[in-house]
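W.,

You were right to be curious about this one. When I first looked at the sequence I had no strong expectations either way, so I just let the prediction run and decided to look at it fresh. Below is the sequence, 308 residues in total, followed by the output.
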Amino acid sequence: MEKDLNHQGRQGEDRGDGIRRRPKEERQQTARRRPVEESGTQERRRRPAGESGTQERRRRPVGESGTQEARRRLQAIENFSELGSGIHIAMQDLDIRGAGNMLGAEQSGFIADLGYETYQKILEEAVDELKAEEFADLYSNATENRPDTGSEYVRETYIESDLELMFPPTYIPNDSERVSLYRELDKMEEERDILAFTERLKDRFGKVPKEGKELIRVVRLRRMAKMLGMEKVILKKGQMSIFLVTNPESPYYESEAFDKLLGFIQKHPRECTLREQNGKRSIVIKNVPTVEVACNYLDEIGKVQIQK
């Protein structure tokens, strides 16, 4: 009996409601111990920093010990903190790290100052110069059997015009789709690709309007102009201005493509005018109101027979 009572005292009191209470003596001891613990906690909370047993760290500003690169990065984050400034932070990071050298491991950042397209153009010109001079023997066999065309002397031909060249919104209503077709057309060079592109347009949108046909002919005009060694073709005010290779010492002026151009000028002296201004040689052809007429002229130049 005594053993059962002692066991019940250790387990707690049962008041008959199913809830077991802790013994009275245990509750009193807990009540006496609580104020001391709470007061100790409050004392610890009131202690100033540095008086506790934990080790405090002193945070030094970046300006004291950080590198110049780290300071520039933090300055960029501080200056461009508003919404939409991610591109500015990226450009700052590009400037700090440097974009590098495509042919080596040097981190120069030279491309950030010029822009990618200009840098790429300079790089291509440098490679072509090496092929023509230092490594001419290595590439002589590769170019020995090629036809003598102007495209060997011109990397890119640019077309400028004041004509209406586009796919009208009434023909292709969706703006994004229209832009996508512009990009696809701009990358074409082969005649078969141009014809296939035209057929797809007819199949999807119907008959191509006049402005669209003229735009498609621009791609053909650019390809033909490059084959004849023309750096730029301008169609404005009803005439066509053709700009030839800028370098007067270029072997282009001894090529078959240039001889064809001279033969065309001799055949049409009234329509053609040969000019040279600021070291740039150009030819002006009158009565060229459309891209179609310009293509016909270049096609005729390409068919000129040269007497050897």
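Here's what jumped out at me. The longest strand covers residues 230-236. And, maybe more interesting for your project: The chain is about 50% helix and 10% strand.

Coffee later to discuss?

I.
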